[in-house]
Write a structure and sequence with these properties.
By secondary structure, the protein is mostly helical. It has one domain (35-315). Helices cover 60% and strands 0% of the residues. It has 14 helices and no strands. Helix 2 (37-66) packs parallel to helix 6, helix 4 packs antiparallel against helix 6 and helix 12 packs parallel to helix 13. 35% of the residues are buried.
């Protein structure tokens, strides 16, 4: 009963913060109860009522197992440093870990099965940030917290750090056009992460979770200065809550984002046989980006409502 009350209170508080921001500073014109809002509400309720407790239990188990390792000298060295330096190092290591883990989830066939659930959202707002498969959620929480556990950060500080990261994740997914100006190179902004969810690029840019410095260093930073027009995936997937929980376990080969660009290319060729697109038979960063730009222009002309993004239809 208490968990249900806490969930309702959390939903009320988060709505009180983000709904006014999204109404006052909208990145996209979309209804409050936009397409698939109910599905994202199910993911929100699932995280709070079902999946958070197992993730916390996993982190506690990992911490107890690590206590058996000879980590005392490392932890003593870290704790002897100034507090600001401990904090900076912990953030940097955690961010680097989640950056590469996130990139891997887009390249690994196995991990992509679970992570692609997060990319099926046809529109972004604070609630859509909760569209996450439980296994993907556990993977992300473990990766971002493991370095801090190894360094000996106490669990109560880990909990505070997790709350901060969670709120920031809601902000960068939110339908808010606010940006911290030059600080976006350090703190990130919704516009940057929205491009990670853009339809044609298929999640090939802006992998950073907190600070985009890793994207800047490794060449995956992308900011054209405007928000994308379409979100989601080109590959056909079930969008119901239970269906998406089951989908990763089905015995079929799922396409990675780069392959989703090829799927979109195939769709466009079928719909517009006299208007050929650039070949994407060899997938690499250069031709994915160039093909994506061409595909975006083609998709604008597609009138099929089965493919058109609900968020775009609502903005008209």
């Amino acid at each position: 009963m208490q968990v249900a009350l806490d969930t309702l209170l959390s939903f009320a508080l988060l709505s009180a913060v983000f709904v006014p921001l999204e109404r006052l500073f909208p990145a996209q014109r979309q209804r409050l109860l936009r397409s698939e809002w109910g599905i994202d509400l199910c993911f929100f309720l699932g995280q709070y009522l079902l999946w958070t407790a197992p993730v916390v239990a996993l982190l506690v188990l990992v911490q107890r197992k690590l206590e058996l390792l000879p980590l005392a000298p490392l932890r003593a060295f870290v704790q002897a440093q100034p507090l600001w330096l401990q904090f900076a190092v912990a953030i940097a290591i955690s961010d680097a870990s989640i950056y590469w883990a996130h990139r891997l989830s887009h390249r690994s066939q196995f991990l992509w099965r679970f992570h692609r659930v997060h990319h099926t959202a046809p529109a972004l707002d604070w609630l859509a940030a909760h569209r996450e498969h439980p296994f993907d959620n556990a993977y992300t929480r473990l990766v971002e917290n493991l370095p801090l556990i190894v360094l000996g950060v106490p669990l109560h500080l880990l909990a505070g750090f997790a709350v901060f990261r969670g709120l920031w994740a809601l902000f960068i997914h939110s339908n808010v056009a606010l940006t911290p100006g030059p600080l976006r190179f350090v703190l990130g902004a919704p516009r940057l992460h929205h491009w990670h969810h853009e339809l044609a690029r298929g999640g090939q840019v802006n992998f950073a979770n907190l600070s985009p410095l890793m994207d800047l260093v490794f060449g995956t930073y992308h900011d054209p200065g405007v928000f994308p027009e379409r979100y989601g995936l080109a590959e056909p997937l079930a969008h119901g809550y239970l269906a998406q929980l089951i989908e990763p376990f089905k015995p079929r080969r799922g396409a990675r984002p780069a392959q989703s660009v090829q799927a979109l290319n195939t769709y466009c060729l079928r719909e517009m046989p006299n208007d050929p697109l650039p070949s994407t038979s060899t997938v690499n960063t250069a031709n994915v980006v160039s093909a994506s730009a061409a595909l975006s222009k083609r998709v604008v002309g597609i009138s099929s409502s089965s493919f058109q993004s609900p968020s775009l239809r609502e903005s008209r």
